[in-house]
Design goal:
2 domains; globular; S-adenosyl-L-methionine-dependent methyltransferases; alpha/beta; Rossmann fold; eleven-stranded mixed sheet; single chain; 11 strands; about 260 residues; binds S-adenosylmethionine
């Protein structure tokens, strides 16, 4: 069971203001720039399928993979509410980024919202990159974002608090980070207080997400080791190079 098993129940509420449509357009532009004819996408760590739905709406066919059954349940629920032409271009399957093999190739592989930072050891990151390479047709592109080391070390992880509510649920989330110099990993300790607004009952979830911050040269080396080449990198959602202010950075590899 992953930390996302409990988290999935509140995930879409916590990230309801995230600009999934804008991010999908951004990623599509990157894909189109490097692979103009691309139409099929594998999404590693698809979560609740919000990017997949946007990309299907743009005409791509998207196969989402995630290791959390809870996230996949939400993804299927999202899919079932969409028009049938979009539904037919989306599918979801359970699998681990480090080992899943779908037995087919795609024009692009994407992995968004720091999924690669969840691959905290060198071995796990290498395996996830090999999965991407394995599913890319020759010349296809791998687009992913991650925590970017130079900005994490400069800005430094801080305690954050997020409070959100809808008609039925109220979520109050505190994140307390602990950084580890030798592993380049930040343990983000979440305390999530969830209140059922109808009954007033509360529940507190505690979980730790281990996030690795990555540096361009190690990404370059790991992509090469997996048989890909690093062709582009940006501060997330911009056309600037990643820098000391870009906590999230986006990388493009070619298979
Ligand atoms: C922060 S969420 C991002 C979900 C989605 N991409 C989004 O943008 O909303 C991270 C996701 O990565 C998935 N994940 C983390 N490590 C994974 C692995 N090794 N294999 C498959 N999924 C993984 C989690 O289950 C979770 O759904």
């Amino acid at each position: 069971m992953t930390v996302f098993a409990g988290y999935s129940r509140y995930y879409d509420l916590l990230y309801r203001d995230k600009d999934y449509a804008g991010e999908a357009r951004y990623v599509s532009n990157l894909i189109r720039h490097h692979a103009p004819e691309a139409s099929s996408i594998m999404e590693i760590g698809c979560g609740t399928g919000a990017h997949a739905a946007e990309l299907a709406g743009m005409g791509y066919s998207v196969t989402g993979v995630d290791m959390s059954l809870g996230m996949l349940e939400s993804a299927e629920a999202r899919r079932s509410d969409l028009p049938s032409d979009l539904q037919s271009r989306m599918s979801f399957t359970c699998g681990d980024a480090r080992s899943v093999r779908l037995g087919r190739k795609f024009d692009a592989v994407i992995s968004l919202f720091h999924v690669m930072s969840y691959q905290t050891s060198n071995a796990d990151l290498a395996s996830a990159f090999e999965t991407a390479k394995e599913h890319l047709r020759p010349g296809g592109v791998f687009v992913f974002d991650c925590w970017y080391g130079p900005a994490v070390l400069r800005q430094w992880p801080a305690v954050t608090r997020k409070h959100l509510s809808d008609d039925v649920t109220e979520v109050d989330r505190i994140a307390e980070p602990a950084i580890h110099a030798e592993t380049n990993v930040v343990d983000v300790n979440y305390s999530i207080k969830v209140t059922d607004r109808l009954t007033g009952t509360t529940e507190v979830l505690r979980e730790t997400h281990h996030m690795r911050y990555l540096f361009s040269p190690e990404i370059d080396a790991a992509l090469s080791a997996a048989g890909m080449s690093l062709i582009d990198s940006y501060a997330w959602m911009s056309d600037e190079r990643p820098g000391f202010d870009s906590w999230g950075a986006c990388f493009v590899g070619r298979g």
